């Protein structure tokens, strides 16, 4: 496991050939997907992670300047995909993570086959 995976509590579940990334909303962590994940395991490799400052992420990694904008979180998402060698994924983002996925896709549109926004935050 790499430093990015460790810092964000990355979990990869399932046996499918396609990747789906589930990104939680503000004030929650990856556990919000516990009822959806079992339905995806046969068809996808499910990537779960916690945004920095959520769940059990290490507070030593939190940088107020980096995370003062969504760009810092988007860089983290891209780093996770790079470390996992994900070349294309479906991204499902809830709340603020929908916007994080959108920001990340502007930098690397090739990594995102689809973006699903669930109750996306407007900013």
From TrEMBL:
Matches recorded under Pfam families: Abhydrolase_1
InterPro entries in alphabetical order: AB_hydrolase_1, AB_hydrolase_fold
Organism superkingdom: Eukaryota
Gene3D superfamilies, alphabetized: alpha/beta hydrolase
Residue span(s) of domain AB hydrolase-1: 20-120
PANTHER family, alphabetized: ESTERASE-RELATED
UniProt record similarity statement: Belongs to the AB hydrolase superfamily.
Record's protein name: AB hydrolase-1 domain-containing protein
Organism: Vigna mungo
